[in-house]
Amino acid sequence: MIDRSTIERILDAAQIVDVVQEFVPLKKRGVNYLGLCPFHNEKTPSFTVSPSKEIFKCFGCGKAGNSVNFVMEHEHLTYPEALKYLARKYHIEIVEKELTQEELEKQNERESLLVVTSYAARQFTENLFHTDEGISICLTYFKERGFRQDTLKKFDVGYSFEKRDAFSKKALEDGYKQDYLIKTGLSIQHEDHIFDRFSGRVMFPIHSLSGQVLGFGGRVLKTDIKSAKYLNSPESEIYHKSRILYGIYQARKSITQDDRCYLVEGYTDVLSLHEANIENVVASSGTSLTQEQVRLIKRFTQNITILYDGDAAGIKASLRGIDLVLEEGMNVKIVLLPDSEDPDSFSKKVSNDEFLKFLKENETDFIRFKTQLLLSEANNDPVRKADLIRDVVKSIAVIPEAITRTVYIKECSTVLDVSEPILYHEVNKLRQQKSFQDRNKYPGPEDLPVPPPVIVKPVQHETSTYYSEEAVVKLLLKYGSVEFERTINKEDGKEDVLTVSDYIVREITSDDLLFDDSVCSKIFSEFRFHIEHGLITGEKQFVKHDDPEISKLSANLLSEPHQLSKIWKEKQTFVETEEMKLKEIVGDAVLKFKSDKIIKIQKEIKIRLEEAQKANDMELVQQLMKRYANLSVVLGLISRKLGNRILL
Ligand SMILES: [Zn+2]
pLDDT tens digits for 168-178? Predict the structure, then answer.
């Protein structure tokens, strides 16, 4: 843990222009700097850096934040990692917060295990490249299969000797503790002997996002041995196979650049694609694809292409992976390799360009893929065809975006020759069943807060309260300390000044209203805390906040250009700024916030009402209907107050 005062020193020292310029060439334009956005493809620059506000903002893709957010986003680092990066850049010594005994032990153990795994990786590469056994058995094997040495080195591929305790013995001699050797799974204890888990195997280290060795995959070289062909490190404090992907460390930059991630099956498939100049590739080795792995990819891109080889049965077993990708709202394409080819053999048979061309020309969406795969089996059997339709419909139903679902329903209707209304009906039925099951776990899909608009044209979410929450937070950040109104205290005749934040906080807390969005809620709570304790709150505090979510949202909201009144803009006589009509804007924002909340509460009441009616609980029905009616009255009053300014 980095202590608070060190974080502040880092944030104070970091010069946004300086930090960004290390990665993006910038040109001065007035008070700001302009460059080509590193987060999306563009030809004309819309990426702006403001040294006075200490923030960056891309008006193309919407990404925004402070120096720390930039480093996190660009280098794919965690918050502490980004802070450490900046600390190194500005020569600030990191003072770590004192940890509790328990935290300390846990951290020490983690670090000790990482020391052991990185030692092991070094030993194994040493064995492969610089010992007779390694060269004659293992390096020859790779040479015969056509792998280049620089690829092996890039992935720290190594070799573990055949002698059953060679590694463990050497590690103990070099002073590594037996306890850690066993906890990393590199060694196995049997009575009072200690053995190597991976003897006589090619060793593939599995790296974390930042390049630390978490575990290993080991492949046997001799086919006559009865042991498993592949062996993985067991789960440990540092290695969780469901959360990591093989090759992600080497692929992350290229995934971002290409905005696509290829997913293959094995370690050597990853290596083969690198040799074919395709570096944005990972494998979910030792496990079928998990949701955590899909989310790991999602940090870098929305687009996954799965490469399948082999027989239909093998593919069918891994179809669940497609649904996992769809569930995350990502785009999935599938490429089926030619018969009896795997990525390794196929990439060696054709040239690099031909390979890439094949991938691009043969990618299909999941509907066509599943249909081709399953329809041949169905063979005009109506029952089997119905199963296939249900199968495809099930995949469509997990897609979170309504528009994407519509597109796929259309496609499915064409490919499988089923009418669209029937498909809609089936998809909605499945979705309702699912949301019913999940109701206790999650809020309904319509009530989920919408993430900040990072897309160029944000979709209008009428049912969400996010935009009205954001509007309130934006006013707090921009004008929190500006005077809202002045009143004369009748008792002592003194003037009372009410600021914008005083007004907003008073209005929202007096009605006990809550924010749905966690980041908006955090910012609001800090304002409230400051007011209650007579502290002054400034926008800088939030742009430089030590919660990266808060600094990101603040930078985004503060960098938006002034929203000018439409009428004034059209007449072009003079421009009325937000400040000049602040009172009206703040009042309206608070009212809109309130009416959105009421609409949301009414929706919840409706659901409860239906349930109460089903359960024949007439007393509850009456109660709920009364509440609903009361809220409608309040809503009517607010609408009238808002007049036709907003509800036009
Ligand atoms: Zn951008």
Answer: 999 999 999 99
